[in-house]
Amino acid sequence: MPNHLVYIIMDSCRFDSYRSAATPNMDRLGMAECRYSYASWTSPSHYALLMGMVPHTSPKGVFASEVYKQDFAKWIDRLGIPELSFKTFVPHLSLPKVLQDLGYETIARVSMPVLNQLTSINRYFDDYKLMSNHNDFVSMVKEVEFFEEEPRFYFFNLGETHYPYMLSGENLPHISGVHGVFKDLDTSLKKENDPAEKTFFDDEEMQQLHKQQITCVEYVDSLLAELYAKCPPNTYFIITADHGELFGEGGYFGHGPVMHEKCFEVPFIEGFCPH
Q1: Alpha helices in the chain (DSSP H)
Q2: Of 1, 84, 113, 251, which has fewest CB within 10 angstroms of its CB?
Q3: pTM score, two decimals?
């Protein structure tokens, strides 16, 4: 039977937040790398990830096509299917489509409203759900189950590491992300002359938010032991992020319309489920 696949996206988790966190359970999977996302915000990055394009390295002196080839060839080892190749992904360029064709049950649980089930990112999933709670990795873990002779693909988008990094009602500064902006655009435009709406976080608030993201990484890690215990030995894990985050560097906060290396640096860990 092909290997099961669990793909975890810690939304907005920049690499140095991961590196500063205590992550004993992620460490059991293997050594984390600093890699680079293909986009600086959630939706386009997830589309790239679900094409089968994992966060990339950045080698010099080689053709970009060689990097793509090596990344797609790695799916042979991850899934234990020797006949896989880049051509397997053509023409749909969809990892869940490839897995469906191979007999996988494809299951997604997402936290970000911009990835809701009405968007096209839902295509080729047998079971796709936007969680009602922004921070509900614990419920995702509880829902996981495996069956004999049925390979499964679980795709998790975690909101815990995404701004505002709330775990239990912390008193942290708050502004809207892109979904909130879209939802409240008419109201916010009416307030465009309100100076309170344009106040930037100070250095202390930036540091507070960065530390809270690190705390959220540690919280996510704490739930992995329960998840590992539910997974068969032939379950392959990928844990990464869709993009990074800015905490005041270069005068930026957040991600999206930001061109800064910290917005693209993400952790990347992969390996078989440790038992």
Answers
A1: 15-20, 24-27, 42-49, 64-79, 86-89, 95-101, 137-143, 178-183, 185-190, 203-230
A2: 251
A3: 0.90
- Which has the closest alpha carbon to 106: 157, 155, 51? 155
CATH number of the domain that residue 44 is part of: 3.40.720.10
Q: Which amino acid is at 181?
A: V
Half-sphere exposure of 151 (CA within 13 A, CB side): 21
pLDDT tens by residue, 34-92 = 999 999 999 999 999 999 999 999 999 999 988 888 888 899 999 999 988 888 898 99
Angle 147-148-154 from CA coordinates, rounded to 5°: 45
Provide the pairing of β-strand 4-10 with 152-158.
parallel
* Domain that includes residue 94, residue range: 4-272
Q: Are 81 and 102 in contact (CB under 8 A)?
A: yes
Return the ∠ at Cα 142 (arms to 140 and 145), rounded to 5°: 95
Residue 156 parent element (H or E): strand 152-158
Integer CA distances (angstroms), 220 to 24, 69, 103, 120, 169, in order: 11, 32, 30, 27, 17
Task: Please state the length of the chain.
Answer: 275
pLDDT tens readout for residues 67-81: 888 888 899 999 999
